[in-house]
Design brief:
single chain; Immunoglobulin-like; 2 domains; four-stranded antiparallel β-sheet; 3 helices; 8 strands; 41% strand; Ig-like_fold; DUF1573
Length: 145
């Protein structure tokens, strides 16, 4: 008898479980959410340097480096966004399109605050390139006063 009652209870439980995943599966249109850039022709970008080391710097200092790039494609380059991996790394980028063959600059200011030791930060550049995100790297050894 113990077998029969546990089968009934298992049957009821599994029928309740089977009913609930159905709506969840129909709500998962993940592929619809991921279209990359809008309908814009792609071009290509070439940075003179994609990484920079500030070497040894002091806490609470302000350190600036300019990454220079060229639009090496055949369409105007449109930088949609540039973002640092933390609030201590702030990029400034051109808002206007860069014509094919023309150059531009992305200025990165790194302010380590109270960080210490080896630091590696990134700046992600989103543009009408393939792939649409280019990553620049900065590094430093932050010393205490």
């Amino acid at each position: 008898m113990d077998h029969d009652s546990s089968n009934e209870s298992t049957g009821k439980t599994s029928s309740n479980i089977v009913a609930s995943p159905t709506p969840t599966n129909s709500i998962m249109p993940e592929k619809v959410i991921t279209p990359p850039t809008p309908n814009r022709p792609t071009t290509s970008i070439n940075f003179a340097e994609s990484s920079h080391s500030f070497g040894e710097i002091m806490q609470d200092s302000k350190n600036t480096f300019v990454f220079k790039f060229t639009n090496t494609g055949n369409e105007p380059l449109v930088i949609e966004n540039a973002s640092g991996s933390c609030g201590c790394t702030v990029p400034t980028y051109p808002k206007e399109p860069i014509a094919p063959g023309e150059t531009g600059e992305i200025e990165v200011v790194y302010s380590p605050g109270k960080q210490q030791g080896e630091q590696n930060k990134t700046v992600s550049i989103t543009a009408n390139t393939e792939p649409n995100v280019t990553t620049l790297n900065i590094s430093a050894t932050v010393k205490t006063p």
